[in-house]
Structures
1.
Amino acid sequence: MSSGFGAFGGVGRCYKFWMAFKECMSEAPTKEMCLPAREDYMECLHHNKEIARRNRIEEQRRHLAEEARGGGGGGGGGG
């Protein structure tokens, strides 16, 4: 993780985010200034925003599929 070594050798995928966060924490006058860097690092580690976005997309996809199934039979032609 923050050691810089990846699981399969080389640099870890989140190492650049860790270094940016670490540098910010050492140079910034307040910790609040480093919140974006921390957020990037945490997203890289845990993918919370990515997972939430994927869940919203899947929910919308299900909703549209249900509408298509339920809304297709309502046009009974009175002749």
2.
Amino acid sequence: QGHMVSGGISGDILVNSKLSGIPEVLMSLRNPAVLQNVSFHPCVRLHRFERDKALSFIPPDGEFTLASYWIPDLTLNMPFHFNVSVNYHAEH
């Protein structure tokens, strides 16, 4: 009988945006410190993530990968808590 020596979670946050206008979406993470080797879609405001550990973005239309991540331990809870706010800005 074997046992696990190491493990991790590799995942993606997929979005299918059907919002009209120029909505600003804010998504908070339950425990952003567990994300390692994370890469974000270009629409993500990196300074906001670095400052507040929240994903702020204006989504492009349709399906896209918002983020890809690696969590190096299977005993961790998923780091997401979906509490989303959408703010519409007037088009210029």
